[in-house]
Write a structure and sequence with these properties.
Two copies of one chain form a homodimer. Chain A has 368 residues and is of the alpha+beta class. Chain A folds into three domains: 84 residues, Rossmann fold (3-Layer(aba) Sandwich); 61 residues, Dna Ligase, domain 1 (2-Layer Sandwich); 186 residues, ATP-grasp fold, B domain (D-amino Acid Aminotransferase, Chain A, domain 1, 2-Layer Sandwich), CATH 3.30.470.20. Chain A contains twelve helices and 17 strands. In chain A, strand 1, helix 1 and strand 2 form a beta-alpha-beta unit. In chain A, helix 1 packs across helix 10.
């Protein structure tokens, strides 16, 4: 089978690496000539909305998918006429818009932070009055890694927030005190088979994910995980989802709150490459190709550390017990995700020891 | 770093898959335009002895290696003038010639089957008289997967054997009764660090490897493994080896006997992709790039089944507990290695159960 992937970044690259052993072939579409996946697979360099590029890209594909949720829905619509595209377009359209996403969660009875749609300056004032502050004004679309957001500490910040984001459709979200950020990576196959990876605890800095760690299997975490599984199950079912879905959750004490979802393989699931019997990349491909899903059992307590803006010495990383290096073939630039390190350990204490060493090296070289 | 690999078959392909996460880039040289590694990396299509092809291949490489031991020594010699090539040329030259190989084992005090160099028809008669029959007349060079061999049941077969192989340099090897065939996969780094994978038990049919299995950790196997480690250590040291080395051993009851060696990643080590913390492919690259070697600890009892000539349904394979599929992107042809299945299990009994299922599927579709 030949799989087409819109976007040729590191996610696409890791999809190809997981798919080659399954006998799959890959073609990528990306505007960048030096995209990471283009180094290891066929690349059609072109814009996602460029008809000729899409046609060249789609020629002879058996299935198509995308590695980021900002791909234009119109491109997926025209692609869908000639090749099956997964995850389904409704999932993409929903995940692209914070308002649609919140509404979907609401319809399914999944708690979210309080929110209001903001179309006018007076909507904003009204929303702040209703939700209270602090709150975050966010663009409904194209926000990622903390971009397109403005923290409103109190009502006096509204004017500045409005002026910064006003060219976009917006949503105001209440700030909910939470004890931890989590994500649940799930996969659903064409015939409705569903698997979930263990719940992941995430640490962000400057809006960018730094560390993901398989949540320790304590009673409290298993309780959280069960809530997350319930919520994700209803999303998967409602969207008749096919592929890997990542949903971010906050632990708000008495309950979990869904933050956002990504209809694709996710940075917080990179630890599954070594940490799980089947990686998120392999399971995404198995789902969209109609193959049976693989076991999401973990090989031991696992974690992942992102390499942002700079890369430590490979030798030093590789000497750390249980550590594996994953570089994306990108030129260093501040704030850019250049690679990650996964750690798998026999127990939590060993994981802590190795993780501490990895973080020391990663954070010393990180930029942005 | 950019790594050049002579030969673009499945071994080269799996080297690239293991090396991309380390940030390595790959270029292959192979006479075949549709070679498996060429589907996922840059391929220079040309003969190994073709000067222009070698020059194009070597441009800008940081290190080079080879994926099969029949690559002409002359090609490695000329390549060595412009880029470091590992494993060392002496290892290649030795492994290419059964006589040199036997002599090396002998020098190091490693037992082998009795053998005689055969250059003339009367050499053969003399050799049979000395060694006895049954014995196998083998070409010294270019024999693999059971090719280039003639079993001499008794002296009356000498004439036919001689006539079949006489255009080659030959060696006569005595047939030693053995209880099992094993291989030991080892890696040695530039600074002399050495690691060994657990001993592997191998099953051949028609001279082609069918099943490799991590030897169960019984006292008897650990005793055999210790002997194999001693022998391989002396080979690695003597050749100042860099990279992965596979040595095949027979269990001759009271002692092990070295059969042959391959200065490269080896089919009997494919189970290490899922079965070990670090695969043989990753460790070969880490060795030749001067990186620290990775742990060879196993993730549980493991095995591998080759897919020869035909490929079973991917769905059926993937439903088997602990099974992973590895296809090479080759067109089916009788006797051709098209892929393999690895199995990792929590215990020997589970491994047996899964292995039985994999073998049933693999052997039902195998051809040749």
């Amino acid at each position: 089978m030949r799989i087409g992937v819109l976007g040729a970044g590191q996610l696409g690259r890791m999809l190809a690496l997981a798919g080659y052993p399954l006998g799959l072939q890959f073609r990528f579409l990306d505007p960048g000539f030096d995209a990471p996946a283009g180094q290891i697979a066929e690349l059609v360099a072109g814009r996602y909305t460029e008809r000729a590029a899409l046609e060249r890209f789609s020629l002879g594909l058996d299935a198509a998918t995308y590695e980021f949720e900002s791909v234009p829905v119109a491109a997926i619509e025209s692609l869908s006429l000639v090749v099956p595209v997964f995850p389904p377009i409704e999932a993409l359209a929903t995940a692209q818009d914070r308002l649609f996403e919140k509404r979907l969660f609401g319809e399914l009875g999944i708690a979210t932070a309080p929110y209001r749609n903001v179309e006018t300056r007076s909507d904003l004032d009204k929303a702040i009055a209703e939700i209270g502050s602090p709150a975050i004004l966010k663009t409904r679309r194209l926000g990622y890694d903390g971009k397109g957001q403005y923290l409103i500490e109190d009502a006096s910040d509204c004017e500045a927030a409005w002026n910064q984001l006003r060219s976009n459709a917006m949503i105001l979200e209440g700030v909910v005190p939470f004890r931890g950020e989590y994500s649940l990576i799930s996969a659903r196959s064409k015939n409705g088979e569903v698997v979930h990876y263990p719940l992941v605890a995430n640490e962000h800095k400057h809006g960018i994910l730094r560390v993901s760690r398989m949540a320790p299997r304590t009673d409290e975490m298993l309780r959280l995980e069960a809530q997350a599984i319930d919520a994700s199950n209803s999303v998967l079912e409602r969207l008749q989802y096919v592929g890997v879905l990542a949903v971010e959750y906050f632990d708000a004490g008495t309950r979990i709150i869904a933050n956002e979802m990504a209809p694709r393989v996710h940075n917080s699931g990179h630890w599954t490459i070594e940490g799980s019997v089947t990686s998120q990349f392999a399971n995404h491909l198995r789902a969209i190709c109609g193959m049976p899903l693989g076991s999401t059992a973990s090989r031991g307590p696992s974690a992942m550390v992102n390499l942002i803006g700079g890369v430590p010495s490979a030798d030093e990383i590789l000497r750390i017990e249980g550590a594996s290096l994953h570089l994306y073939g990108k030129e260093p630039r501040a704030g850019r995700k250049l690679g990650h390190v996964t750690v798998v350990a026999p127990d939590e204490a060993s994981l802590n020891r190795s993780l501490e060493k990895v973080c020391a090296l990663a954070f010393a070289t990180s930029q942005g």
